[in-house]
Specification:
Elements (H helix, E strand, L loop, with lengths): L1 H24 L20 E9 L7 E3 L5 E5 L7 E2 L4 E5 L2 H25 L4 H34 L6 H30 L3 H26 L2 E3 L4 E6 L6 E2 L4 E3 L4 E3 L2 E4 L5 E9 L13 E5 L6 E9 L4 E2 L14 E10 L11 E6 L10
Antiparallel strand pairs: 1-12, 1-17, 2-11, 3-5, 3-8, 4-7, 5-6, 7-11, 9-10, 12-16, 13-14, 13-17, 14-16, 15-16
Helix pairs in contact: 2-5, 3-4
Length: 369
């Protein structure tokens, strides 16, 4: 009985092994690829990595950093929004700077009021007081003079009626009254002359200094609102209400580094540019001109788009520009070349997207020495 069971199990195992060998030995057909690798459409065409950018006459996308530090309290703009030059994008907390500006404005206004008062001198009221003081001094002088003349006349008639002390007192009173009249006349002249020109010049300088400080505070206050420097499209906003930003930008929790608060594309509409990077060892094979042919291949699709040569950035730079500016040292250097294209309507293509480029520029034969 046991031998029969063992024989049956052995036969079943052999059948299972034979079936598995037949099944796994059958050829399997691989599934067709979703998209084909980018083919080289040119004989001897040159391959390059490229990055899509907004259409603008020079430079790359506009990276915006605030000139002051502060907490974000409002974000009037939205990603993908078309904005005009001067439109607010980010608003920072400016309560302290606003109070400082108001204080300087009050100080400048006070200095201006003092300056206007000095320029408006003499006041009619002050002039009237000075003239009245002259009249009082003149009347006092006349009264004392008349008294002295009477005493001198009595003395000539009868010297014993007026003492010497009375004559001296009357004479002194005339001299004091005469001096008082002279002082009153000088004070009248001083009042009519108004403020001293040196005092006016000093007050003018004080007002000018305070006014400039106020204007500087107003200009500083404007910096708490980050505005669009040009007409364009908001590509990326890397902050949120309540976040702290500075002149170094905003902290990116993903990359662990600081980056721009807002990224803008100056262009818009149906045109985009592609900045491709040519390996330095391939530069001598290029003959770039307005007739240069090139094609863009969108990764993940079989879509290709013809490109038009725009310009060459005449500076060979490290290739780290394609890797978000990482800090590692590299030996490979590339030549940036800019092409333009019409934005496809049925394909999603955005600034910042990496693409494959083939350039069919005619090769240049490099002579040997």
């Amino acid at each position: 009985m046991n031998n029969r069971i063992l024989f049956a199990l052995s036969a079943a195992g052999a059948l299972i092994g034979l079936g598995s060998a037949v099944y796994y030995g059958m050829p399997k057909h691989s599934q067709p690829p979703v998209f084909n690798p980018a083919p080289n459409p040119y004989a001897g065409g040159i391959y390059a990595n490229g990055i899509v950018q907004s259409d603008q006459p020079n430079g790359a996308n506009t990276a915006m950093y605030p000139e002051v530090a502060g907490t974000v309290v409002q974000i009037p703009a939205a990603e993908g929004q078309r904005v005009r030059k001067g439109d607010p994008l980010i608003v920072l907390d400016s309560s302290v700077q606003r109070a400082t500006t108001e204080q300087l404005r009050a100080q400048a206004n006070a200095a201006r009021a003092i300056l206007d008062a000095m320029r408006a001198q003499p006041r009619p009221e002050a002039l009237a007081v000075a003239e009245a003081q002259v009249d009082v001094a003149a009347a006092t002088y006349k009264m004392n003079k008349d008294t002295l003349v009477k005493l001198e006349g009595i003395t000539r008639t009868d010297p014993g009626l007026v003492s010497r002390d009375q004559l001296d007192n009357a004479s002194n009173a005339v001299r004091v009254a005469s001096a008082g009249l002279a002082v009153a006349n000088k004070q009248l002249e001083l009042t009519r002359a108004g403020a001293w020109r040196y005092d006016i010049q000093s007050q003018e300088q004080q007002y000018a200094a305070l006014d400039k400080a106020y204007r500087a505070a107003v200009a500083q206050l404007e910096k708490y609102t980050l505005r669009a420097p040009v007409d364009g499209t908001v590509l990326s906003i890397q902050t949120a209400v309540g976040s702290y930003v500075s002149a170094q930008g905003t902290y990116d929790t993903i990359s662990g580094s600081n980056g721009p608060v807002v990224l803008m594309g100056a262009g818009g509409g149906d045109r985009l540019t592609v900045r491709c990077y040519i390996d330095e060892i391939l530069i001598q094979r290029l003959d770039l001109s307005s007739g240069t042919q090139a094609q863009l291949f969108i990764r993940g699709t079989n879509v290709s788009i013809p490109l038009h040569y725009v310009r060459t950035q005449p500076y060979v730079s490290p290739k780290i520009q394609l890797s978000s500016g990482r800090a590692e040292r590299v030996d490979l250097r590339v030549l940036p070349v800019i092409f333009s294209l019409s934005k496809p309507r049925d394909v999603q293509l955005y600034p910042g997207q990496l693409v494959d480029i083939y350039i069919g520029a005619p090769a240049i034969t490099v002579g040997s020495r």
